[in-house]
Amino acid sequence: MTTNEYDAGAIRVLEGLEAVRKRPAMYIGDVSTRGLHHLVYEVVDNSIDEALAGYCSQITVTVHIDNSISVEDNGRGIPVGMSPDPKYKKKSALEVALTVLHAGGKFDSNMYKVSGGLHGVGVSCVNALSAWLEVEVKRDSHVHFIAFARGKPKGPLEKRGHTKGTGTKVTFLPDKDIFEETTYNAEILLSRLRELAFLNKGLKIVFEDERTDDEAIVMQYKGGIIEYVKYLNRNKELLHRTPIYMELAKEDVEVEVSLQYTGAYSEVTASFANNINTHEGGTHLSGFRAALTKSLNDYARKNNLFKKSNAAISGDDTREGLTAIISVRLRNPQFEGQTKTKLGNSDVQGIVNSLVYEGLQTYFEENPSVANRVINKTLEAARAREAARKARELTRRKGALDSLGQAAKLADCSERDPQLCELFIVEGDSAGGSAKQGRDRRYQAILPLRGKVLNVEKAREDKMLGNNEIRSLITAIGAGFGKDDFDASKLRYHKIIIMTDADVDGAHIRTLLLTFFFRQMPELIRRGHLFIAQPPLYQIRKGKKERYVNTETEYEDFLYELALDNVSVQKKNNGDSAPIETEQLIKAIRNAQDRERLIGRAFRVYGVTREALMKCLALPRESYLNPASLTYSQLTALFGEGVEVINTLEAQRELDEHHDENSNGKAKHQVIRRKDQVDLAFLKSHEFSALLSYADSSNGVEDPVYTVSTQSDEQKATLFESNVLLEVKDFLLETGRKGLNVQRYKGLGEMNADQLLETTMDPQNRVLLAVTAEDEAVADDMFTMLMGELVEPRKDFIEKHAAEVQNLDV
């Protein structure tokens, strides 16, 4: 057996990196929230590839307080030797891998048997799209470090101490000039990381969000995809207790399949290729579905479970209530583009088909009671499908013939181009009346719903089609429903907007509608046609000024504006006083609030008091370039006697020998933490970096003196003065509230037609919330828990999150 050396020579260059910043969507899909999270996945995929190769057992992902991200693994570490490529002779392989597109170890099949990072634009792409990126590699007994700014190295690769471990740590901050949004959603990241932990049996993945005080989440599943299926079905009624599991390794292809049937009416199937979620399926999914249908039909015929000899179960019937995970690993996967959403390897279909068919035949023979329950469920599904087909035909005829009945509820628009048309689904006749009067009849249609919509989570299609409100929805939208019948090309409106009241009844109706669309028209969500209207929370009036606001932040901003109509704020620096503009003031207040949160976290996590923190922030910036390498003597010279720095590697050894005269022979680091002690880990933290940035941007760490005065120059009088900006904030908010008239809107019917148009329906002013499903398996689980038959999981969820409820309207 030959040993393949993973060194600088393994990094092969295909082409340069320059167009990524100009056309980022070509490489990560888009520059919205989806693209933002894709950056993390690209880095994590590299660590996963190390795990697949057998060199990595733990991956840690950390979201820092400033929304930068660290991904750390204990793999071999990216090679740091000089690149053997003549074009890059003076550069390390690490720098080449991070600055050249299509440079990586994945193009050499000897380095990685299977890999998700096939296209090789991963980390270099992340580097190009980051404001800054830092890499720390533990390899060859040393810690190696290199930093980049917008894809360009800030300096050469450098060594930072010794280490016995190995691994790579990548930390980056997405560039605000590239991305529409740079705030990470912990739930989205956690969903993908949990998925990877299930798919890679035994791999430990740790997720920590430093923006909260929550503990780190550790995910490690020795049962692999069997535990994944159990997790997805934890809130469902099971047809059989233990998931069915099959695995096969054949012709450089490894296949794992696990499935389980439940009493639900929907299907949850997820397919993966080399850990990449193939949302659009592909040959592996086709092979699985064909085998499942054939296996169930063959078993039913063999055991005379069909009443008619020529009867058969359709593929849709066999998948009702099915939860399945299909995972394949192969050397040369063929994906559709960098987004990797569909597998195209033709040979995989036959391999998966053979495994699943033979595996199910064996399982059914050994477990006839389970087989009979599954067959009975599929036969019930077939009968319901036939009843639904008849009801569907009736709905179609009714929609075509009974146009007067439709017109009584739907107030249609005159425009016939679906791309320009909008359908507002409103709650009740009262809101429907205001919406009909306020709309633009050219392109806005209104569909009022009477009462609550049927919960389709608990109903099959035949019962669903017996509900008048559901039938009205299907007829108005015009594209059919369900997997077989829905046709997006027949959509009558390309914007479908749910517009309900801002109370608990409105929230319930909105949830019922979302359940219907997710279960029966998921393509609306996938194609971006579904939205939720955001009516204003408040109408605020003071004198002739009037404002509608949607958030508490907007409310506060309006209060500042009202206050500053009557008073002015001056900032005193070095004895000089200068007025501060409203926008500048509000930004300073936001920064002060963020700063206070960071100071609070510094104390909670690191035990650093405000006094010690202020002393550290006042030191020269060069003091923090590499504090870990400082000795105790250097630290004493740097920080003086005022601040003691504890927990350094080199300093710790000296501290053991360095005794305070008054400590009775005890080393300084053993003394109980005092007000002036600072843990070195804090000086290296992202919290401290963020506080340094705040201090630099405001020319200091303490607030200057702010004076609030009357506006009149002739009789200017000081009303309030403080060197604490948050106290100034409170004074301004209180001033703004004087004489204010605030109306809280709960129902759309409380607004007249003009107000509803101005705030909620006019494209120039309105706010729409786009409905998306980043992970449909997670969304399915949430709908099952909240809207399904089982009460206990719903009760647990409510009890767990009850304390988080804010602004509850009943």
Principal-axes geometry comes out as flat
> If you compute it from the alpha carbons, what radius of gyration comes out, rounded to the nearest whole angstrom?
31 Å
Query: What distance lies between the first and last C-alpha atoms, to the nearest angstrom?
Result: 71 Å
**CATH topology value of the largest domain:** Heat Shock Protein 90
Average residue pLDDT:
81
Percentage of residues in helical conformation:
25-40%
What does this structure look like?
With 810 residues, the chain is an alpha+beta fold. 39% of the residues lie in helices and 19% in strands. Strands 2, 3, 5, 6, 7, 8, 9, 10 and 11 form a nine-stranded mixed sheet that branches. A five-stranded mixed sheet has the order 12-13-16-14-15, sandwiched between helices. Strands 18-17-19-20-30 form a five-stranded mixed sheet, sandwiched between helices. A hairpin with a 2-residue loop joins strand 23 (567-573) and strand 24. Helix 9 packs across helix 10 (368-401). The radius of gyration is 31 Å and the shape is flat. It starts with 11 loop residues before the first strand and ends in a 9-residue tail after the last helix.
Task: Summarize the model shown.
The chain is an alpha+beta fold and 810 residues long. It has 28 helices and 30 strands. It starts with 11 loop residues before the first strand and ends in a 9-residue tail after the last helix.
